[in-house]
Specification:
about 55% helix, 4 strands, alpha/beta, globular, about 130 residues, Rossmann fold
Length: about 130
């Protein structure tokens, strides 16, 4: 299983190959991913950075079931703990780290801050952007 953060899901969904690079890897994410990606896409359309058609395609790919929603009963508690340990005011990004830790999975992200945080917690994280 791979845990995708919103950043990775968005990059992959806007890339021509989509999620094909992750076939067989069981990509999953906490429930937060879908509202976070929807919000980022809306902001990017609003700012004229992407077209509404690109956003719609991205939303369809993200919602297609390529990424499985993975809930864990201790997700909120663990995200709270991790945010505190890392000195973060918000728990959003900590949810991805928490789910990776609880599931014993690798975190897929293009966010260097999250990669550094994962390494600090003893987790494996990172991914090369598609070309």
């Amino acid at each position: 299983m791979l845990i995708l953060d919103a950043n990775a899901a968005l990059v992959l969904s806007l890339h021509e190959a989509g999620f094909k690079e992750l076939q067989g890897a069981e990509p999953a994410a906490p429930p937060l991913l879908w509202s976070e990606t929807r919000s980022v896409l809306h902001v990017n359309v609003y700012r004229g950075l992407i077209s509404s058609q690109e956003a719609k395609r991205s939303l369809e790919l993200i919602g297609s079931g390529a990424i499985k929603e993975h809930r864990h009963p201790r997700l909120g508690h663990e995200a709270w703990r991790i945010a505190g340990e890392l000195g973060w005011a918000k728990t959003y990004d900590a949810e991805y780290l928490a789910l990776a830790a609880l599931a014993g999975a690798r975190l897929v992200t293009f966010d260097r801050r999250l990669v550094r945080a994962a390494e600090r917690l003893g987790l494996v994280a990172g991914f090369e952007p598609p070309r």
